[in-house]
Amino acid sequence: MDEQSSTVTIPVGDVQLPADLLLPADPAGVVLFAHGSGSSRHSPRNVAVARTLNGRGLATVLVDLLTPAEEEVDARTAEPRFDIGLLAGRLAGIVDWLAAERPAGNVPIGLFGASTGAAAALVAAASRADRVRAVVSRGGRPDLAGAALARVRTPTLLLVGGLDEEVIVLNEQALGELGEVGELRVVPGATHLFEEPGTLDQVADQAGAWFSDHLVGEAVRRS
């Protein structure tokens, strides 16, 4: 499969955010990644999932949602990475950029969020219901999305490790708020970071199938 990879700078409000963009030939959709607290666009887990999505013909965007200055503050206080409103606003701005600039073409947009990034993805999806067509959460904290959960109209898959008991409970509670647009799946034998052999592969496969169903199908309807 022919692919093009590049590092781009995305303007969002008064900041410039670096992102890694990978475009398969004729992508059927594009998935924007929101990493968890303390991580970056170079997260090996998100990169691995992104490669699986690329193999399914989906473009991917991995972006740093905080500026270097904000990262410095975060290292001392751990505040920006838990500012869900800030992160969600940045994601929404990137969704707008993808829709306007169309680096992957006029294709449907999905969001993949990990840990706290999942909460930001859900808040962004609630605010951009006309543009975000699918959401996947990996070991996420959807509960941190608060009141926005009830406003989500986007098909949302919650993936949680079977050994991540506290997060399972939080996702079950969030599922009640999401209603019929949400689905919870538990990956047996996995802890929070899906470090156990084969568990991240399951996440990537299930995320790929979810995005293929909801983005590729949307792309076909547009054509």
From TrEMBL:
Ranges where the AB hydrolase-1 domain occurs: 30-143
Keywords: Hydrolase
Pfam family, one: Abhydrolase_1
Superkingdom: Bacteria
Keyword set includes Flavoprotein: no
InterPro entries recorded: AB_hydrolase_1 (IPR000073), AB_hydrolase_fold (IPR029058), FrsA_esterase (IPR050261)
Protein name: Dienelactone hydrolase family protein
Family statement drawn from the similarity comment of this UniProt entry: Belongs to the AB hydrolase superfamily. FUS2 hydrolase family.
Membrane-spanning parts: none
Listed GO MF terms: carboxylic ester hydrolase activity
